[in-house]
Design a protein that fits this description.
By secondary structure, the chain is mostly helical. Helices cover about 50% and strands about 0% of the residues. The chain has 16 helices and 2 strands. A two-stranded antiparallel sheet has the order 1-2. About 30% of the residues are buried. The C terminus is likely disordered. InterPro entries: GAS1, GDNF/GAS1. One of its GO terms (biological process) is regulation of cell cycle. Keywords: Cell membrane, Glycoprotein, Membrane, Signal. Its main location: membrane. Pfam families: GDNF.
Length: about 290
């Protein structure tokens, strides 16, 4: 080979070495920008390069994996943030007490697919196990609220919808296009269409049967009445009254089952404990 040819070969090799090696899809994902929620939890680092979806499907995810996966999904991340705020008293207060705000946050969190992973994840330390034990007091009320036949307050129903990305978007359009209906003036075609889209969302099902508890930031009974009369030419919906607290429960007046549960079937779903455990680590890091 001539000297010129040798030099050309060396140049080609140097250029090839300088080019960035393309990573295959299964090997690496581009790093995600830190989310505000991630920074608040002390999770400013991007997600690991190996996607969680490609992890061994035969094992339960670690609670750290489940927490990261939830934190970086819009709907679940919002519910996770509500949990951190609403359940702070659960981790620092006396055992055996489940605050109302914590119940609501747990209902929203466990209504998401990513949040459900937090129910089956594996603890790696004692702090995680302790959080699991403290959250157990909330389990009965949360499981009742997430049953299909249960009626919840409109605040809780809105939180469940808001924790789902598609339902949250439909709810935003409803708020945008139904303002005149809210004021009792008119139900426009856009408002009717946004209501139709919202009702097609799975996570909006409880909005149809929810009851106004008087703690909303809006006039809940008036809006329900306006929608029935202006949009559907119907009589105002009947008003649900909160049930009496169940023995041994704390602040469970958010829930109104349509029918009594049938012992074994309801208890069978208590098998997966609410392992919303690793979140205590986030609380400790934030304090």
């Amino acid at each position: 080979m001539s000297l010129r040819g040798s030099r050309l070969a060396v140049v080609v090799l140097l250029v090839a070495a300088a080019l960035p090696r393309a990573a295959s899809a299964p090997d690496m994902l581009p790093p995600a920008a830190p989310s505000p929620l991630g920074l608040a939890l002390g999770l400013g680092l991007p997600l690991p390069g190996v996607p969680l979806e490609d992890a061994d499907q035969g094992r339960r995810p670690s609670c750290e994996e489940a927490r990261l996966k939830c934190a970086y999904r819009t709907g679940c991340g919002r519910a996770l943030q509500m949990y951190i705020v609403g359940c702070s008293a659960l981790h620092h207060g006396p055992p055996g007490h489940c605050p109302e705000a914590c119940q609501q946050a747990l209902i929203a969190l466990t209504s998401t697919d990513e949040g459900k992973d937090l129910m089956t994840c594996q603890c790696a330390d004692d702090l995680c196990e302790e959080t699991k034990r403290r959250v157990e007091v909330c389990r009965p009320s949360v499981l009742r609220a997430t049953r299909n036949e249960s009626v919840v307050s409109c605040r809780v129903a809105q939180w469940i919808c808001g924790a789902d990305a598609l339902c949250s978007t439909a709810l935003e359009y409803y708020h945008r296009y139904c303002r005149r209906m809210f004021r009792g003036q008119k139900c426009t075609a856009r408002c009717k269409n946004s209501i139709s889209i919202l009702r097609r969302q799975d996570k909006a099902a409880k909005l149809d049967s929810c009851w106004c508890d008087g703690k909303e930031e809006y006039d809940c009974p008036a809006i329900r009445s306006n929608m029935a009369q202006l949009c559907f030419h119907q009589a105002p919906p009947r008003t649900y009254a909160p049930p009496d607290p169940l023995p041994g429960d704390v602040e469970t007046n958010e829930l109104l089952p349509k029918q009594q549960s049938k012992g074994g079937a309801a208890r069978a779903r208590l098998g997966a404990p609410l392992l919303l455990l690793v979140l205590a680590a986030a609380l400790a890091a934030a304090s």
